[in-house]
Amino acid sequence: MKQTHKNCQDPKCKVCLEDHLAVGTRLDELCGDTGKHDHMGRFHSWLTKQGLSPETEHGWGTAAFFDNDNIAKYAEEFLRTNSMKITRELLRRWCACYIDERIAALVPEAGLTPLEVANLDIPAKDRLWILLRDDIVPARELRLLACDWAESACRKSGWADARSLEAIAVARRFAVGEASEAELAAARSAAWSARSAAWSTSKSAWSPRGAAAEAAAAAADVRAMEALSASKTAEWAVQSAAWGSEDGEAAARSEQIADVVRVLKRIDEAAKAGKEAE
Ligand SMILES: [Zn+2]
Question: Which domain holds residue 105?
Answer without folding.
Answer: 88-121
